Amino acid sequence: MGRLQLLLRATALGGAQPAAVLGALDRACPALTGTGFATVVYAEYDPAGASLTYACAGHPPPLLAGEDGVRYLNGGRSGPLGFGGPHTQATIGVRRGSRLILCTDGLVERR
To answer: What are the φ/ψ torsions at residue 9 (nearest 5 degrees)?
Structure first.
């Protein structure tokens, strides 16, 4: 997982959008031991545009909590890493004071 994290950072710093970052991780999985069925959420927040662009590969969707309530962000979803296939992303507007809630998939898979 450490190798995937380094690849994610390098790809994102290169300017790739969230779906392209997940695509790079997906293509690298066969060459990395222990990355079968890895899940990830990657998001970029643009404070100037008050927008969030995100992509989820097999991971539970993030929650967005704000003045208008709490909702799952169900866009930008694809299967776990290592299975191939296209990765999509979604962009939403985010109001000031909103909170993005992410959890590890182990949080919801264990008692």
So the answer is: -60, -45
